[in-house]
C-alpha cells in the first residue's frame, strides 16, 4: 500500500501514479515577487486578500469561483455563440444539458449564482419566514435577510468541529428541523436550502441516505427543497467513494439521483460547470418558473439569455457534460486531498476530512494565542501572502458578519483560512509551494499579530473590509 496524489491505493495489481486526465495546451506566466514587496502590498490592501491585485499574487487560492481553466471543447463552443437577443440556440443547448444531467425541466439563465439566489429569495420568502440551511453561506444568507427572511442552521453538530472525522458533515439534523416546525409552525418555513459540499463547514458533503430522510421529512410537511447546487458534483464523488452501495456507480448517475429529491436549484456555474461567468435557476415547479422568467427580465435580461452572452451559455452547456466525467472529478478532488495530506502530515491543524474544493486551515488552533475578536483567520491569510505570495481567504468571524438585530459580531465556531483550488489550473508542485509556506508559518506562528478592523462595509464585509495590525 502506498500514497498516490494524496490518497492510499490498496489495489494489489495497479499501484502506478494516476495522472491528470488532460494535457496542457496554453500556459499563463506567473510573477514571483519579494517578501518586502508583498508586505507593502498587503498593507496597501488593508490586510484583506480580496483587495490585492491579481498581478501581485503568485499562486491564487482565493476562490474556485470563475477561476477554472476551460477545455478546448468549451473554447471552440464559444466561437459558435449565437448573440441573438431572443431565442439564442445556445440557450437551448444549455437547457438540454441541465435537463439531461440535473433532471430539472425548466431553466432560467442568470449572470451568476448570486442573481439566482436573489430571484429565488424574493419570490419564495415572505417577511418573517425561516429558511433552514445545512450551515449558512454568506451570499445565500444575505439574500434571505434582504427578503426579510430568517436563516436557521440545521446542520449536524459535528460540522462545527474541525477535528471531527465524520465522513458526511454536511448532513442535516432532522431533530433540529422538527424543533423548528414545532416552535414556529410549517407555514413559517419558506423552503429548505441544501448545499452539497458545504462551503463554510470545509467543503463537507452530505450522504444520499441523509438526503432521502430529509426529502421524506420535507414531503411530509409540504416544504420544498431547493439545492444550492454549486458543488454538487464533488458531493456526488464523495458519495461514490464513501457511501455503501455507490462504489463503482458513475458520478453522473449519483448527481441525477441527488437532484431528484429537490424541487429545483440555484447554480453558480463558475464552480462545477467549469466556466468563468454564469449561472441559472432550474426547477420542476412551473408556477415558480413563470415568476422567475418575469423577474429575470427586470434584473438580468430576457429569459433566454439572463445577462449572459450566447457564447457563455454554450461554454456552460459543454462544461456541464465535462464535469460529470469520472476521471476528471476524481483528479480534481485528489489534488485537494494531496494538499491536505501534506499539511496534515506536517501537523498543521486543518478541517477533517479534507473537503472537495479547498483545504481549510483551522486558524483557531494555528494561532491559538489570538482571541477571535483579533481576527486570527484574517491575520493568517495576510501572513501567508507575505510569506510566499499565496492568496487564500478568511472564513470566520469576518465572513460571519454582524447579527442584524443586536449589531454584535456573529462568532462562528469555525475560524478558518480557505485554500481554494481552481479546477484544472495548478499542478501538485504548486501545492507543494503552498504546503511549504504553511509549514514555515506554523513554525513561527507566535510572531503573527492580530488585527483590528478600521473600515467595515454594512453588507458582506469580508469583501471590502480593511484592517491594521494591533500594536503590542
Question: What layout of secondary structure does this protein have?
Answer:
Blueprint: E1 2-4, E2 7-9, H1 35-44, E3 59-60, H2 72-78, H3 89-101, E4 106-110, H4 113-124, E5 130-133, H5 138-146, E6 150-153, H6 174-184, E7 192-194, H7 208-221, E8 225-228, H8 232-242, H9 251-259, E9 264-268, E10 279-283, H10 286-299, H11 310-323, H12 326-345, E11 358-362, H13 363-366, H14 376-388, E12 390-391, E13 393-395, H15 397-400, E14 416-420, H16 428-443, E15 451-455, E16 466-469
Parallel strand pairs: 3-12, 5-6, 7-8, 8-9
Antiparallel strand pairs: 1-2, 4-10, 9-10, 11-14, 13-14, 15-16
Helix pairs in contact: 1-14, 2-11, 3-11, 4-5, 4-10, 8-9, 12-16, 14-16
Mean pLDDT metric: 95
Looking at CATH, which topology of the largest domain would you report? Aspartate Aminotransferase, domain 2
Contiguous runs where pLDDT drops below 50 for at least 5 residues: 1-12
The first-level CATH class of the largest domain is given as Alpha Beta
- Inertia-based shape: globular
Number of strands: 16
What structural class do helix, strand and pairing data support? Answer: alpha/beta
Largest sheet: 5 strands, mixed
Strand order of the largest sheet: 4-10-9-8-7
Give me the CATH architecture of the largest domain, please: 3-Layer(aba) Sandwich
Radius of gyration equals 22 Å
What is the straight-line distance between the termini? 50 Å
Q: Into which percent range does the helicity of residues fall? A: 25-40%
Task: Kindly report the name of the CATH homologous superfamily of the largest domain.
Answer: Type I PLP-dependent aspartate aminotransferase-like (Major domain)
Strand content: 5-15%
Domain module tally: 2
Number of H- or I-type helical stretches:
16
Enzyme class: lyase
Keywords: Lyase, Pyridoxal phosphate
Catalytic activity: L-tyrosine + H2O = phenol + pyruvate + NH4(+)
Cofactor: pyridoxal 5'-phosphate
